[in-house]
Amino acid sequence: MSKKNAGRRRFLVQSAALVGGATSATLSSPAAAQELAGQPWERVYGAPFTGYGQPSKYEAPVIRHIGRPYGDLAPGSGASLSPIESLEGIITPSSLHNVRNHSGTPDIDPKEHRLLIHGMVARPLMFTVDSLLRYPMTTRTHFIECSGNSNRGLTPQPAQVPAGAIHGNAACSEWTGIPLRVLLEEAGIDASAKWLLAEGADSAHMSRSIPIEKAFDDALIALYQNGERLRPENGYPVRLFLPGWEGNMSVKWLRRIKATDGPTHTKDETSKYTDPLPDGKALQFTYEMGVKSVITRPSSTMTLPRPGLYEITGLAWSGAGRVRQVEVSTDGGASWTAATLLGEERPKSFVRFRLPWEWTGKPAVLQSRATDEKGRVQPKRADFLARYAPDIRFHNNSIVSWAVGADGKVTHVYA
Predict the structure, then answer these.
(1) Residue 350 and residue 218 share a domain
(2) What is the SS3 assignment for 163-227?
(3) Per residue in 241-283, pLDDT tens?
(4) Per the domain annotation, does 270 fall within a domain?
(5) Are residues 331 and 257 in the same domain?
(6) Can you tell me the distance from the alpha carbon of 167 to that of 92, in angstroms, rounded to the nearest whole number?
(7) d(Cα 149, Cα 65) in Å, to the nearest integer?
(8) Which of 72, 109, 303, 318 is most buried, most CB within 10 Å of its CB?
(9) Is residue 38 very low, low, confident or very high in pLDDT (cuts 50, 70, 90)?
């Protein structure tokens, strides 16, 4: 048996002990077992079929964390963050996917929408949505993360909010669409074209410059998400998707792609999305999202009811490719233990990590640290801050710390 499989087997044995202990305790009472046979829902005919399924009413509290920095003046500008603390696995439900909008969600009629490819091409092309849907497609599972995700972890004092309200401007879906290179080749892109301009059909006309190498690598013209057509807030009827790169570059409601010989320096990539340095300069075009992880359970605002065996679990990802290792510390980084990974075979995708942990009732500080296939290691918060000027807002991939008090309450701390 390989070392990796042996580790997974130990994890499953420990987890089974946790679950098995709880089950045997619950069923030890004959009266409790008898009650299972007489619940109200077992005595009535169930609900009829519906055309589109909905979550259970008992899951109504699981909703996104909504940020509206401009309040009622611009209710569609801001972000809606995924409740990662309440989710499992690696796929984010489309209805709980993170959303970052600059001017709300447009109501686009797919019959009227067009995608133009022009600029330095031999044959400018105009596509209807129906024509795009007729192309052969490919399907990939990737994460998408706003470059401003986790910027609440850069404030002077740690925010005491759920994990998703800090780190939930990221999600992972199954994306289906047309490789961008197929459409560029059909248009006869000029060999001297080095960049693309991608522009959306929202009222802000979100636009970004994209190096041509990314377009011919893994860029996708996405039409489906998690098996169904894109949701409006996620770019319906068609969006650009650039795996592993900062989320706003995956332009939603895509209406045109222009081939150019240099970057366009649009308003969206000059007024923001740059990284200020201590010497007064700033980094521009820092596209790739760094290797990152966050423990989602236990996490901030949760409470452990009593000492005992728990599972530490969370998500890890890297814009550089595959996550190769996630280590967990329960003592603020003094020691580390490798966690079990699920989904690590997928590049630029969420990975779920798990580690059994026996909490003795003493204070603890939980951290996770990810390493990707290029050997890049998630940095400490102090090391990340030292790289940039104090007003840094983007690309925070530093280690996250949750403190567990003697009373079981979990809080956000800087360690």
Answers:
(1) no
(2) HHHHHCCEEEEEEEEEEHHHHHHHHCECCCCCEEEEEECCCCCCEEEEEHHHHCCCCEEEEEECC
(3) 999 999 999 999 999 999 999 999 999 898 889 999 999 999 9
(4) yes
(5) no
(6) 14
(7) 13
(8) 318
(9) confident
